[in-house]
Design goal:
- This protein is mostly helical.
- The protein folds into two domains: 4-101, no CATH class; 111-239, no CATH class.
- The protein has ten helices and two strands; from the N terminus they run ααααααββαααα.
- It has helices at 4-36, 51-61, 71-101, 104-109, 117-127, 136-142, 167-183, 185-195, 202-223, 235-239, and strands at 147-152, 155-161.
- It has a two-stranded antiparallel sheet.
- A hairpin with a 2-residue loop joins β1 (147-152) and β2 (155-161).
- α5 crosses α7 (167-183).
- The longest helix has 33 residues, at 4-36.
- The radius of gyration is 22 Å and the shape is globular.
- 24% of the residues are buried.
């Protein structure tokens, strides 16, 4: 059983993810409402959510409201909700950043190209004490990244990943893996070997990268060494750490 502090850390990570999801939902509702009223593009060139376009949306929704223009009020309420959510998101993110800064493991894991603070904190919070895992297979299984095994008589088939354990870690790890394969030459080569030139194997390949990344992270946490690009292909040296 993790300590109370670690449990609260995990709760804050989940809380932040929920706020992020709410922000995305509100933004989608704003755009959908505007498009339903004929605003297929933002009023000012550029992204929908830059400051100038937010002011433009405010000017649209603050126009005189008639019986047929109640969508103005809807947009205004959604923009108010968005501002509140973004304020909450900033507060939670600042708190998590400060907490991660006090954890030496954060610097360690963020030495991997493409791994940011959100992924590092999720791995650290849900790993807790890395020594409680006897080997890398047990570690990857805890996060649900090992394939399910179907056996019947002489038939033995490996299926999809089990998806057990904390889904927030798998989600962040997969998102980071797409960045990692762009920034790490050795992991990019590993990704391409698994993909084998077949575009329909992209998801399989990125899951394989996520699993390998977890194995590397476990080795780094056990040894205390920063990421070393030249050791990535030496899997045995990285995962067979007592």
């Amino acid at each position: 059983m993790p300590s109370k502090e670690v449990r609260q850390w995990r709760q804050m990570i989940l809380h932040r993810k929920k706020i992020v999801c709410k922000v995305v939902q509100v933004k989608n509702r704003v755009r959908a409402t505007l498009k339903s009223q004929g605003y297929s593009k933002a009023g000012i060139k550029g992204g929908w959510w830059k400051k100038a376009n937010r002011l433009w949306m405010r000017s649209v929704c603050e126009a005189s409201i008639g019986v047929s223009d109640l969508w103005h009020m809807h947009i205004c309420n959604l923009l108010d909700e968005l501002e509140l959510l973004e304020k909450q998101l900033k507060q939670v993110t600042n708190y998590l950043d400060e907490y991660l800064f006090r954890n030496s493991g954060g610097v360690l894991l963020m030495s991997i190209p493409g791994v940011g603070p959100r992924t590092a904190e999720a791995i650290l919070a849900y790993t807790d004490d890395v020594r409680r895992f006897d080997n890398y297979k047990q570690y990857c299984s805890y996060f649900g990244l090992t394939p399910k095994l179907d056996e019947s008589g002489s038939m033995r088939r490996l299926g999809h990943i089990s998806k057990r354990g904390p889904s927030v870690v798998r989600w962040m790890l997969c998102e980071s893996s797409w960045k990692v394969v762009r920034k790490s030459k050795s992991l990019r080569e590993f990704y391409e070997r698994v993909m084998a030139g077949q575009n329909n194997r992209k998801k399989i390949a990125i899951i394989a990268v996520s699993r390998k990344l977890l194995s590397i992270m476990r080795a780094m946490m056990l040894t205390g060494e920063l990421f070393n690009e030249q050791l990535v292909n030496k899997v045995d040296e990285l995962i067979k750490v007592a």
